[in-house]
Specification:
Strand order of the largest sheet: 11-12-19-18-14-17-16-15
CATH class of the largest domain: Alpha Beta
CATH topology of the largest domain: Rossmann fold
Radius of gyration: 31 Å
Number of strands: 19
CATH architecture of the largest domain: 3-Layer(aba) Sandwich
Shape: globular
Number of domains: 3
Mean pLDDT: 85
Strand content: 15-25%
Number of helices: 17
Distance between the termini: 45 Å
Low-confidence stretches: none
């Protein structure tokens, strides 16, 4: 078994960033799988690069033994020193190739492999080196269920220190029993790490419970502090009044009786009691402030859409049996209905025709109810699509743009990222298209891989937004956790050579 990775007092920053990205991080990663989860730009890949030696820390140390293998999001291809592993016929290598469904013919055409095949080849080359530390950065991007299961079967047997960076909760939950959640509340603040010994889905729930508890405790302490402040103000009034009463100023020099009473009060300490109480209150207030500071700042994003944005289907969408042709491939679509408020996912391997079916359903729905009644969030966008989506945003009035910006923030975005005029990322474009599309209160929402390019926090925010609405939904997604949480009906698309079938299960 491998030794742990020990990170001590690690600090790191990129040039030009306001504050340090990492500040005095202490972390020990033991053998077994740990998930790194959080928003894009929160430092997950940066910490992985620091562990792998791709980046050098500004200060602190990272200690580990043996080799570190980093599988990046994009496989760079076969290198010269990889061939010793490609044609290794030892029993372990043969078993690993069989486990990953690889053969020599695939090595010869490495440049034309599918995304799933390239990812399996990358993983084989990494595992063949028997690394003590294996880092996987988004290993399931654009992979279908079959490819994910093949990869999982190979990773279950890895006994070193495994680090998994992914937005796919189902994949992380299948592998990792510890989750480190990365969050950054501003460019001038260091990343906060929440180390939770639970799979990712449960870890995010646990973190939200912890944050809610902190907010509740902060509210209680703030209320206590306000109460103490009012009591202090009251004592200050009494002290001022007492000071006025204890003053001999204004008393006739011959009024010895009045002066004697004041001297007696001073002698017995009556003039000091409120002052002592005030000091005690100030001490208690200092203690409450320290307890507030120790809890730290916590901010919870609002969830849901800022306004209701869906209307209802008044009747089911009925799809009669038909055949859809695309080149030499023909997909037979069995009769199916999509009732009002139903939520249906479309499952199938890559290349089976899911997008082909989705476009047919969108066309049938628009023919029946009109374009405005159907919101279609497509899988990929062209430059013309991007220009059209952005123009739709700028055509809104101030109030409309304000609602969209508010909802972008609820979806885990910093709206300034595209309002700055420096372009818009694919993930932000997808969110913007969704929010603009639902402003017309469509009756049917069709989404083709809506979680592509989204980080896990954005995916969870979108899931919460959709689950709280009474919409009719048709969904295609490789994210099993996302689709199964939202949908209770399934259409299965199966390909067999040049023909395929789509059927409601």
């Amino acid at each position: 078994m491998s030794n742990p990775v020990i990170i001590s007092n690690l600090s790191f920053n990129y040039p030009g960033r306001g504050g340090r990205l990492f500040e005095s991080v202490n972390l020990t990663l033991h053998p077994g799988w740990t998930a790194f989860a959080g928003a894009n730009g929160s430092g997950k890949s940066t910490l992985a690069d620091l562990i792998a030696g791709v980046l050098a820390a500004d200060s602190g140390t990272i200690r580990h033994s043996g080799q570190v293998c980093l599988c990046t999001q994009v496989f760079g291809g076969i290198e010269v020193d990889d061939y010793q592993y490609l044609y290794d016929y030892s029993s372990d290598s043969v078993r690993l190739r069989r486990l990953l469904a690889l053969d020599e013919e695939m090595f010869e055409r490495a440049g034309t492999l599918s995304g799933g095949e390239r990812k399996r080849l990358q993983l084989y080359l990494a595992l063949s080196r028997s690394p003590s530390v294996l880092i996987l950065d988004e290993p399931t991007n654009h992979l279908d269920a079959r490819s994910k299961n093949i990869i999982l079967s190979a990773l279950y047997g890895y006994d070193g220190v495994g680090i998994l960076i992914s937005h796919d909760r189902a994949f992380m939950d299948s592998l990792a029993r510890r989750t480190i959640i990365f969050s950054c509340e501003g460019a001038d603040r260091p990343v906060q790490l929440d180390d939770i010994p639970l799979p990712a889905s449960a870890a995010f729930s646990e973190r939200e419970e912890r944050r809610a508890s902190i907010l509740s405790r902060r509210a209680a302490l703030a209320g206590n502090l306000a109460s103490l402040g009012r009591a202090e103000s009251g004592l200050e009034e009494r002290i001022r009044a007492s000071s006025s009463r204890m003053s001999k100023r204004g008393i006739d020099v011959r009024d010895h009786d009045a002066k004697g009473k004041i001297d007696a009060a001073r002698l017995t300490g009556k003039d000091r009691r409120d002052g002592d109480r005030k000091k005690a209150l100030e001490s208690r207030m200092d203690d409450v402030r320290k307890r507030l500071d120790s809890l730290g700042e916590v901010r919870l994003r609002k969830s849901g859409l800022s306004a209701p944005s869906f209307s209802s289907l008044h009747s089911a969408l009925h799809i009669p049996p038909t055949d859809i042709a695309a080149g030499s491939y023909t997909l037979h679509v069995a009769m199916m209905d999509f009732p009002p408020a139903s939520r249906t996912r479309i499952d199938g391997d890559n290349g089976a025709g899911k997008t082909l079916l989705v476009k047919h359903l969108v066309s049938a729905a628009r023919e029946r109810w009109g374009d405005a009644a159907v919101a279609y969030i497509r899988q990929e966008y062209s430059p013309d699509d991007e220009a059209l989506i952005c123009s739709r945003y700028y055509e809104l009035d101030d109030a409309g743009r304000g609602c969209v910006v508010s909802d972008l923030y609820r979806l885990g975005s910093d709206p300034a990222s595209f309002l700055s005029g420096n372009g818009i990322s694919p993930g932000e474009l997808r969110k913007l298209d969704y929010l603009l599309s639902v402003r017309s209160a469509p009756a049917l929402l069709v989404m083709d891989e809506p979680t592509n390019h989204l980080d896990i926090t954005s995916v969870m925010a979108l899931e919460q937004m959709l689950s709280s609405s009474g919409l009719t939904l048709i969904l295609v997604s490789h994210d099993a956790a996302f689709s199964t949480r939202l949908c209770d009906r399934k259409v299965e698309v199966v390909r067999n050579g040049s023909t395929g079938e789509a059927r409601l299960c």
